[in-house]
Amino acid sequence: MMRRKGWEMEYRDVLKNKHRIVVKIGTSSLSYPNGRMNFQSIERLAYVLSAIRGNGTQVMLVTSGAIGVGAGRLGLTEKPRELDKKQALAAVGQAELMKIYQKFFEEYNQTVAQVLLTKDVVTIHSRNQNAKRTLIKLLDMNIIPIINENDTIATNEIEFGDNDTLSAIVATLVDADLLVILSDIDGLYSADPRTETSAEIIHSVLEITPELEQLATGAGSSFSTGGMVTKISAAKICLKDGIDCLITSGSDPAIIFDILQGKEVGTHFVAQNENLINHA
Amino acid sequence: MKKQTIIVRIEISTLISSEGKINRRKMDRLAMVLTNLHNSGKHVMVVSSGAIVLGTEKLKLQTMPDNQLEMQAAAAVGQAELIRWYQHSFDEYNQIIAQVLLTSDIMHYPQRVKNTRNTFNRLLDMSIIPIINENDSVSTADIEIDDNYPLALMVAEIAQADFIVIKMEMDNKYLIVLRGDRPALLVDGETELQEKLESFCQVMIPDDNMEMGQFPASIGEIIF
């Protein structure tokens, strides 16, 4: 049997050959803690995704942040609690957010499209097919679709866990081969890294066991705004469909280059693959 | 007294040149008129088409897409462009806008209708003008390129609007459509539009319990 390290590196090799990836970026990677937009980060994201697209890999971006941007636009300092107010801010912020993405992607000559989905893409078959066909058509036209939840008409989806679940649903919908979730933590740890000095990042996960889920809900549960729980459940959705999932920090989006070069960053949820299993 | 709610229906053909490019002057004018209407104390909502046309232009497609899939892709690209144009234009007048994308099937779900109505009300209370379009990129219904009147009707129903104003192709001409069997009114210029809306508001009973009738179900049914 190979050494553990060797295994992990081998799993990383599969990431070198991805053709259709979904990148999910959380609010924490798009804005500063004071709620203001981090343009440098968004600029960098546009550069990285355009470069990857230019290299022939199909890319989709699932973005959060509409409510925060809307609050900023209206000069509100506190995030609203009422659903209708959140929805109103999302309607303002989504338009603003798209404007910013368009601006930065244009710098790299990359056309983007806006696709707003509701959770019923999962349950309503016809809508499911339509969303899928539109997304794939956009990818075939060398366009990067920028996807968010259609918060305005949603009922409670707005509490949907910072779009982690949505990103996994999108990945399965378009038969992506990799989902990258960028947030404010660099991966799943064996314990809470803020309190446990022995805490180590887990680089590869082959199976989501109850113990692993316990890690996410337990000590380290407050690592991130979206929470580790929704990220693990996104990974679960991916693994079920044979899609690799990688959770890492979005502080510098160029980390996506490292991921696609098979470097050992973040936590890799390894999709079951016949060849790989037999080989191991 | 309840503020009057006015749905303004815009067809992109009234705002673009023959090459499919946005006419900035017309766009600017529209933003001014609508902001002014809003400033005069009305609730203003805009129903605007144009995503597919602008997407086609952006993607440099030679002809308008003829199949649904291409239209949906063009709509996803063009909607982002469209809303950006509205933002630019309204920014000049310091007016904040919001984007709301609807699918027609929400009418079958009372909870969604209620939610959308709440969102509209909240936006209007916050002095924001919602710019509404169909969520074409995921819609399962046939895409209607030219006629967004049905969408305007749906929005009027959700928001319980008092008037639908249609921007006409001819410069500065607007058609005011009323509920019930009352004839629509073609007005020339923004001043007249404002005056007529004011006088209609006064004729109409301010209580919302009064039976006002329905809006004409299609453009063809509008009485002049």
- Give the count of helical stretches of chain B: 6
General shape of chain B: globular
Largest sheet descriptor of chain A: 8 strands, mixed
Biggest interface, chains and residues, is: A-B, 41 and 43 residues
- Low-confidence runs of chain B: none
Percent strand of chain B equals: 15-25%
User: What name does CATH use for the topology of chain A?
Assistant: Carbamate kinase
Share in helix of chain A: 40-55%
The biggest beta sheet of chain B is recorded as:
7 strands, mixed
Q: How many distinct beta strands of chain B?
A: 7
CATH homologous group name of chain B: Acetylglutamate kinase-like
How would you briefly describe this protein structure?
By secondary structure, chain A is of the alpha/beta class. Chain A has twelve helices and eight strands.
Fold and architecture overview:
The complex is a heterodimer of chains A (280) and B (224). In chain A, 51% of the residues are buried. Residues 219-225 of chain A have low confidence and may be disordered. Chain A has helices spanning 4-13, 27-30, 39-54, 66-73, 83-107, 120-123, 125-140, 164-173, 210-217, 228-240, 255-260, 274-279; strands at residues 20-25, 58-63, 112-117, 144-149, 178-183, 204-205, 244-249, 267-269. In chain A, strands 3-4-2-1-5-7-8-6 form an eight-stranded mixed β-sheet, with helices on both faces. Chain A is of the alpha/beta class and 280 residues long. Chain A has one domain: Carbamate kinase. Chain B has 224 residues and is α/β, with parallel strands linked by helices. Chain B has a single domain, classed as Carbamate kinase (3-Layer(aba) Sandwich). Helix content of chain B is 40%, strand content 17%. Chain B has a seven-stranded mixed β-sheet, sandwiched between helices. In chain B, strand 5 and strand 6 (173-177) form a beta hairpin. Chain B is globular and about 50 Å long. The two termini of chain B are 29 Å apart. The mean pLDDT of chain B is 88.
